[in-house]
């Protein structure tokens, strides 16, 4: 565990890092970024917590079962959306024009509308969930292995 | 002495190879077949409704590759957790 200054700053900063990561995930179909990148940002915040506090403290708030369920949910939603458009072709964007994320933007530069993109935003959420859960599980497992602790089931 | 001569020859050879490759490299920014690029740039917003053409390529036109990427991530996480997880083991279990 590092000094009180580092811990306090990390405590204040984690909120902004989480918000920025979730913003990058949610705007993946409008701006550069997406599920993978936003998930990596969120996990970098978790790594900051891991450095500021030790892995024993972080183990109390993150459970492996929750991470496992999150990762599996992301993968299942991603694959299910891929298979849902199989009537036309694999990975067919069947949600364009539908009431869910179905608006079609004008071709060319435009301000951007969050309610566009068909299944791309949902896939971004799924991939982001998957990356957050997977990478934080890896980081936590490595930290716990290095410190000789045991992972909470 | 002979080892260092061989190493020098290898370095010179690799250097010549790199210089040759840079000399005959394809000019940057001028792709030779542009049909697919033009199609995606013209139609991505209308077909996928996504402003970010990169996102539409990653998740729609080339979704199968993204599925492979996700599978790689899943496999990596599974491997790390399988190898490095240290859980408490009961005394009587083998």
Query: Biggest interface and its residues per chain?
Result: A-B, 52 and 32 residues
Which structural class do the helices and strands of chain B define?
mainly alpha
Class from helix and strand fractions of chain A: mainly alpha
Using DSSP, what is the number of strands of chain B?
Answer: 0
Strand content of chain A: under 5%
Helix content of chain A: 55-70%
Q: What count of domains describes the coordinates of chain B?
A: 1
Beta-strand share of residues of chain B: under 5%
Helix and strand succession of chain A?
A: HHHHH
Largest beta-sheet characterization of chain B: none
Beginning-to-end CA distance, first to last residue of chain B:
57 Å
Radius of gyration of chain B: 25 Å
What's the total helix number of chain A?
A: 5
Mean pLDDT figure of chain A: 89
Q: Give the uncertain stretches of chain A in residue-range form.
A: none
Net shape of chain B:
flat
User: Care to count the β-strands of chain A?
Assistant: 0
Give an account of the 3D structure.
Chain A is an all-alpha fold. Chain A has one domain (4-147). Helices cover 63% and strands 0% of the residues of chain A. In chain A, α1 packs antiparallel against α2, α2 (35-52) packs parallel to α5 (120-147) and α4 (64-84) runs antiparallel to α5 (120-147). The radius of gyration of chain A is 18 Å and the shape is elongated. Chain A starts with a helix and ends in a 6-residue tail after the last helix. Chain B is mostly helical. The longest helix of chain B has 22 residues, at 2-23. Chain B is flat and about 65 Å long. The A-B interface holds A 28-32, 34, 36, 64, 71, 75, 78-79, 82, 90-91, 93, 96-97, 101-108, 110, 112-113, 116-120, 123-124, 127, 130-131, 134-135, 137-138, 141-142, 144-145, 148-151, 153 and B 42, 45-52, 54-56, 58-60, 63-64, 66-67, 69-70, 73-74, 76-77, 80-81, 84-88.
